[in-house]
Amino acid sequence: MTEKHPVTLAIDIGGTGLKMLCLDPEGKPLTDRLRTLTPNPATPARVLLALDKMREQMPPFDRVSVGFPGVIKQGMTMMAVNLHPKWTGYPLQQMLEKRWKKPVRVANDAAVQGLGAVSGRGIELILTLGTGTGSCLFVDGAMCPMELGHHPWLKKTYEDYLGIRGLKKYGKKKWNKLLEKAIAQTQATFEWDRLYLGGGNTKFVKMEARPEVIIVSNMDGLLGGVALWRG
To answer: What is the b/e burial string over 150-173, where b = at least 16 CB atoms within 10 angstroms of the residue's CB?
Structure first.
């Protein structure tokens, strides 16, 4: 590999949109971010076909990082409630490697975004506010994936209140109050030092500024793609 390699093709699969760009070895963008709507229905076949079309617009790359909105185990998607039931038990990493003839790593999308945002010091939690509610805990930079969005909270789950369904049902003002309650609950649960809020719906967040609560760019969901190959 030369000093300009390896080039990482970073992909962020979301319930609403698919995003892609290439990164240099330091995690800096080499291309503009490409975005297209997530197919409906979002079956594996339809999503992979959309990714194929996006890939054709990218320059040559050496490896692939994928952030996926669901549980990932050994490159397999175990659950994706905001996509399609056919993702249950789907070998996404293996299928992309076979399809594109490149090494691939797949992780939960909140985990990848966290890799692009965290400082690597102390206990850090990321919550992504989008179609659903993603989460990942980091301890001194070590990744601890979780599905906090599906954990019971109040009378439902975190995702029921903080995901797109909750935003539409309760409106922005009440949704922000629920978010503040969730922040307090997660701090009491995890004793985090820093909380990162990501996802498309952070544009609706209205709360008093706190230095330990940091809103991060959606780009971190792609920029974390290089960090996924470290270690």
So the answer is: beebeeebbbbbbbbebbeeeeee
Place of tokens 């949109």: 17
pLDDT digits (tens, 9 = 90+) for 178-227: 999 999 999 999 999 999 999 999 999 999 989 999 999 878 778 889 99
Tokens of 193: 């030092």
Amino acid at residue number 184: A
Give the integer Cα–Cα distance in Å for 108 and 106.
7
pLDDT > 70 in the chain, percent? 98
Q: DSSP character for 150?
A: G
- Among the listed residues 155, 138, 112, the one whose alpha carbon sits nearest the alpha carbon of residue 190: 138
Q: How would you classify the pairing of strands 194-198 and 156-157?
A: unpaired
Q: pTM here?
A: 0.90
How many Å apart are CA 95 and CA 129, to the nearest integer? 28
Listed as own residue / partner, the contacts of 52-60 with beta carbons closer than 8 Å and 24 or more positions apart are: 52/99, 54/18, 54/20, 55/9, 55/20, 55/100, 58/9, 58/20, 58/21, 58/22, 58/31, 58/34, 59/7, 59/22, 59/30, 59/31, 60/7
Beta-bridge partners for 8: 23, 63
Structure tokens of 123?
A: 């206990």
In the chain, residues under CATH classification 3.30.420.40 are 8-112, 118-215
CATH code for the part of the protein at 118-215: 3.30.420.40
CA distance 217 to 221: 8
State the CB neighbour count (10 A cutoff) for residue 213.
18
Which superfamily does 8-112 belong to? ATPase, nucleotide binding domain (3.30.420.40)
